[in-house]
Amino acid sequence: MLHDLHFGLRLLKRAPGFSAVAVLVLGLGIGANTAVFSVINTVLIGKLPVADPDGLVQFVHHIEARKLTSPWTPYTDVPEWRRLFQSMEHISAWQPSSGNLAAGGEPERILLGKTSHTFWRMVGVRPALGRAFLPEEDRPGGGRVLLLTHELWQRHFGGRASALGSTARLDGVPHTIVGVLPPRFRFVGDDRMDAYAPLALPEAGPVVPVAVFGRLKAGVSAAQREAELEAATRATKARLKRYPARLRTRPLESQWIDPDVRGSLWVLLAGVGLVLLIACANVASLLLSRAAARRREIAVRAALGAGRWRLIRQFMVESLPLAALGGAAGVLLASWGVALLPGLDVSRIPRLGEVRIDGRVLAFTAGVSLLTLLLCALAPALALSRARVDDALKEGGRGTAGPRGSRLRNGLVVVEVALALLLSIGAVLMIRTFYRLTNVHPGFNPAGVLSASVELPRNQYRTPEEVARFYGRLLEDVKALPGVRSACLANSLPLSGRYFRGTFFVEGRDYEPGEHPILDTRTVDAGYLRTLEAPLRRGRFFTERDRPDSEPVLVINETTARRYFGGADPIGRRMGNPRQWARVVGVVADVRHTDVARDGLTEVLVPFFQKPEWGATLAVRVAPALYPEPEQAAPLVRRAVRRLDANLAVFRVAAMETTIAVRLGARRLNMLLLAVFAGIAMLLAAVGIYGVLSFAVERRTHEIGVRMALGADARHMVRTVVRQAMQLVAAGVVLGLAAAAALTRLLASMLYGVSATDPAVFTGAAAALAAVAAVACWLPARRATRVDPLAALRWE
Q: Which of 55, 86, 148, 322 is the right S-S partner for 153, CB 3.0 to 4.6 Å?
């Protein structure tokens, strides 16, 4: 084997051009696979950075009557569960929150995770600096302390150790910084948390929803855990009489990931898998071409006693350096690709900045490299090991490939074309989807609109009247800013990624038990339609007179009007619940709030100043002449907020067009990567066709010289060679179209405005690939006809 390895290195050195092309082709295929797998390894497979993540579980309530699973539990259940679950070493609660942090500089809105003091022992994470929470700090009225993430510590405090023990004001309340967590610490559901504080809730009191996690004891049987879950379920049935829920545990996932994102990543991995197969077919064709010239050598080895498996082993070992160099090139290319990931604006794919080429990725690359070795070397090894010794010796030095080798090379060309076409069709479908989405009218005009969010602390603004007074003054001040055409308030703006839902019955309509019409709910003020330039279809919109002391009113969208009122006029009807009905005063056009690709959602608009909320988002339409980019007005909005309250942070500041672009970020990434992979696949297919045809033409040089010496026309010879090659391309196109018709249906959930079997896409992709293949066929055919017939006749 060492002798075969040494011989393989000599072969690579003897043909540097061949070696460079083969290594580059393999590097592209392996590198693309390594880069995409690096993302999947971090985002989908990677474990949480905690001690023994497999021992952590999350408690959930499964409500069979409503076919849903809820992770939220009243905190008052947690003390009882700690007593009941002897199978758990720790049980801790977690609750997401937020606040305005001020520590000497400009206030910053931070995301806050509130946890039990046992949480840090449960996850097995110790602060990199300072300490975790003490038991007495996790009680009502306990110490006001904060644990900072490493990122917030660097960003807000410059990474200074003196931050420990210092005081920061959170929503105006002094808090002592007691610790800093390790870099890149993440826990389920808090991918962007900035700091942590003690939960400090009473064991008996108002219902406060929390997420509950536990760490399993070693050696506890599944039967014991199931018995404890059943006991806890019986205890909650008295409280949940209408919709009884079964308590269950589920393994802790590393992330709560959008299903569309999860599916997109696996589709990308399948795409780069096709690129790798094309690369393997390409290199196998090159190896077959080189091996054809070694038929006499292999025949001599066989005549001297080398068996079939000995010859196959020789080819495999000789190809090992090629696979190793291709794997190394792939890792290098993948590392460059991974370094570019943090710069991509894809907020819906979490942890892109943490993607690394670690041991698991290197093991994957090694496995892929060995697979390519097997796929690339096995074809020529089998072809030559089956050759008849006497025929090969009689052929002399011509190195003719023989019918078996020719059929194998032709088959590889057909496979390359089919795979390249399959990938090209998938890429074109994604490109058309992205184009359609970017041209979808969202139901409003986002151009020239700036959005900025503000959250009022409840410990300072205690009543709805105080909240309404603050936001009323802020709205007046913003409208008075130079260049501001209009402004409005909403608890969430379209396509912001935030939405709220509520139950709304139609008065006078009977409902089946358990039937709850759940509608998207938005709280907006009177300037909403004017600022977003959204049309009113019927009735009126909110006015300044819609206040808490006036009749409750609401506005619905067209989809809600059709679904719940049919052809009847909804104006004047009432919706809500028996405790509080609100009168429908208007119908607005549908606005795509949750996703550009989703329409037909039911929606209810409620007057902001009739039911003021502590958190609100400003939408400000600015004059393009004064602010070509809406973000240029952001400093004026920040100053207007600080004039009213210097401790408030302004966050989520962005142009609405930018917000829409972010919502399309994952689809844009899919489109770009699939387009790149399709381009590589088409290039590799063209190179493969060119290489195979060049070799075939070279082996036919003697024949071509005879034909031309006997008077054959050069154009006729070119047409003959191209026609024979295009027959292989046609077979590959037919096979690729059939495969695409079957497999592109898997992309149906990711497409918008285009069918998974769109005839125009199939036809266009096939025509483009055929054109590229025709050029790859024509070049070597044209070169062959320029050979001097006398020189061709002497060729041996």
A: 148
